[in-house]
Amino acid sequence: MKKLFPAIAIVSIMIAGFTACTPSVPVDEEQLIGRWQNETNTQEYWVYTTETDETGDYQYGKTWDESEVEEDMIEYHGNGWFKWQVAGQELTQMHLMDNGAAEIPKVYTITLLNDNRLEYKDNFGKRFSFVKIAAQ
Length: 136
What we know:
Blueprint: H1 4-21, E1 34-38, E2 44-52, E3 59-65, E4 81-87, E5 90-96, E6 103-113, E7 117-121, E8 127-134
Antiparallel strand pairs: 1-2, 1-8, 2-3, 3-4, 4-5, 5-6, 6-7, 7-8
């Protein structure tokens, strides 16, 4: 037991050290409101609005790629629209489908959010970067 105690203590210290190094980004969802342009695909836009759904749990947003469709061609609350919410650093987007019943969930971890930049990653480690081009 005396030989096991130092090993347990070392492992505990290492775990505490790694936990302390985990970046924590305070997320102010008000900074998310507005129009964002994808840095990689500059024809892709995301708009986060203050409009809430009937439950009050989610807010609406829309996205489009101008190489495929223009913003005014997106049917209100149809394809291209999503509901979103932030809990801690987790951004959940429920993408709406034209059939009215389907909502496709996507969950991201916000790694940076300020007045000008938004960065998040998915569960597979793919990173997304955006620049705010207009406030709502």
